[in-house]
Amino acid sequence: MSRLAIPTVEQAPQAAQPLLAAVQRQLGVVPNLMKLVSHTPAGLEGYLSLNGALAKGRLNAGLRERIALLVAEYNGCDYCLSVHSYLGKNLVKLADAEIDAARDAHSADPRTDAALRFARRVTELRGRVSDADLQAVRAAGFDEAEVLEIVLNVSVNVLTNYVNNVAHTDIDFPAVHAR
Q1: Single pTM value for the model
Q2: Pairwise CA distance, residues 129 & 85, whole Å
């Protein structure tokens, strides 16, 4: 059971209502995370804005979902593992083997594997990666913009992992648990 109250959409602050309506239009549902964060409309707006902006970036949806999976696994966030396993499988159409591999920062695709290994290093070292880590991701063909987007995708996922780990957000997707 969630340790922080998850309001219904109707109970959310008035300033959060248009944001939740936009989530409903986009996803067809308002996940518990969005309802929880609606307690702070400014926080919800910030999260949705950054997440939306990154979706327009250079990294494809498959890589972004894989990064979300590895960060959630590392941080032990069952809510995010559940959400991103569902999205990876049903929206991005990742194979089960790729979803499983992403949780361990791997992929059958060498370029994606390099990005995930770098994202894992960013996560583990809280951004204090080595020159060799940067060289490895660059050698796989990632330019400065893409390297920064990997870091930003790690960061936005750390944000949601921490919110959900603090709140123990009730999982409203098929449940997946950290190893």
Answers
A1: 0.97
A2: 27
Q: Other C-beta atoms within 10 Å of 123: how many?
A: 22
Tens-digit pLDDT profile for residues 72-117: 999 999 999 999 999 999 999 999 999 999 999 999 999 999 999 9
Token output for 94: 């990742």
Tokens matching residue 123: 């996560």
pLDDT tens track for 120-153: 999 999 999 999 999 999 999 999 999 999 999 9
39 — phi, psi (to 5°)? -55, -35
Contacts 24+ apart (CB under 8 A), 122-127: 122/150, 122/151, 122/154, 123/70, 123/71, 123/74, 123/75, 123/154, 123/158, 124/74, 127/151
Q: What's the sign of the alpha-carbon dihedral 19, 61, 160, 82? A: positive
Please say whether the beta carbons of 126 and 119 come within 8 A: no
